[in-house]
Design goal:
It comes from Anser brachyrhynchus. It is elongated and about 70 Å long. It contains 5 helices and no strands. Helices cover about 65% and strands about 0% of the residues.
């Protein structure tokens, strides 16, 4: 009986450990990946509006300080307001920007400020993920 109670206590502790709330960093990281993937899907979609091709590139590396400028520019881009997917993507980008500059401001560490890396990494990000 003691063995069964010990096992239940151990499993309960393991479940509680996994149920910990996400950190600021993990939230920013997951949202940036979600935005990057959504942008790739939007770019490759056959049903996408022609204005989608004119959108600025959107590859997000949250360790690059230039990502803040990239997010701000993408949200402020004046075209494609009528495309629902673009509006949703802009809203996610706005949320990520807000999280990064206010809620997580002290928790994030930028390892680089190479803005050109955010322009050229759309093609190479697939190679990195593999």
């Amino acid at each position: 009986m003691k063995m069964l109670l010990s096992l239940i206590a151990l499993l309960s502790a393991a479940l509680l450990a996994r149920a910990a709330p996400p950190t600021c960093y993990s939230r920013v990281l997951s949202l940036s990946k979600e935005i990057t993937e959504s942008f790739k899907e939007l770019q490759t979609s056959k049903a996408a509006d022609p204005c989608v091709e004119t959108l600025p590139r959107l590859y997000l590396d949250i360790h690059n300080y230039c990502v803040l400028t990239k997010l701000r520019d993408f949200v402020a881009y004046p075209r494609c307001e009528r495309v629902v997917e673009v509006s949703d993507l802009k809203e996610k980008a706005r949320s990520l920007y807000t999280i990064m500059i206010s809620y997580c401001r002290r928790d994030l560490v930028f390892l680089t400020d190479d803005c050109s890396a955010l322009e050229n990494s759309v093609e190479t990000s697939d190679e990195i993920d593999s």
